[in-house]
Write a structure and sequence with these properties.
Length: about 325
Amino acid sequence: MMARARRTGCRALGRRHVLASGAALAGVAKLTGKARAALPRLRMVIFSAPSLGAFLPPIIAAQGFDTKNDLAIDFVERPPDAYTVAFNTGEFDLGGSAAPLTIGLADARGVEVTYLFNLFDYWGTVVTARPEIRTVADLEGRDLAAARGTTNYTMFLWFARKMGADPAKFAVVNTTPAGLVTYAIADRAAAVQLWEPAYTLLKARKPEIRTLDLKLREHWQAVAGTPQIPYLGVAAQRGWVTRNAALIPRLKATYRDAARWLLANPEAAATLIAPRGREEERQAIVALVRANDRLGLNIRPADELRRELQTVYRAGMEVGFLPRMPDEATIYRGTTG
């Protein structure tokens, strides 16, 4: 009888302990929520996954790197065309999938924006399963699946010209970045132009697909004097910068902390970046992060990359994407920490 009472008492104590623990956790969450509510709140538009713009935000959210840097960031995903409209119209003060070329085009259209800091350098390629396609010039007269509205495709046009091809002769089938992998797997076009992380996910599913060499580093080194090609980063409305310059170092520190965690914990990061991906896809992301060649993670203040960014602008003018050289103010001169 006494043994039963002791067991019953233990079970009751266990239940009370669980309830108390739950209440404590709820209390911590409530306090955390209150603390976050008191922080400066930033709304940032980013590309939908799979994209480089959606690479670090899930890490920031899961690890709380924004709150650790005294910010509360809300990431809102949009496809590329919708992203551009949302940022250029001022619906969002901050853009986390900002490309120098789209910043330059916004400037040409009278939108006052500035590139704060770089996150990733450029890498793009063309893949094919057709044996008759050996070079980029072989794409002339054939269908090429591409996300035509992206700056990755625009930069590809510049490299295609350097490879001796005439992009005007490509029969472009326009699709979203998410649709590029589908086109490649189903072999619905002669070739597909894409970039990371879509390329890595594609190779995990279809390892036999071939990549056409664009000689990116060689061509860029020849015109820029460096292999670095600033490609994607964080930008802001200039009016927001005037009002919130003190927050910019915290914002850069948030991304810097996420990048360091990514490099130190690629396996854990892969589950955040591709939560619904298969195991081989997550392992491919791990390899991508460890190599960091195609990924091109390179967090640098815009002002440190001014010459390189201006070379990107000139490339955009050469392919007819930019009507003129963008204003100097499109490259942020202030401190980012």
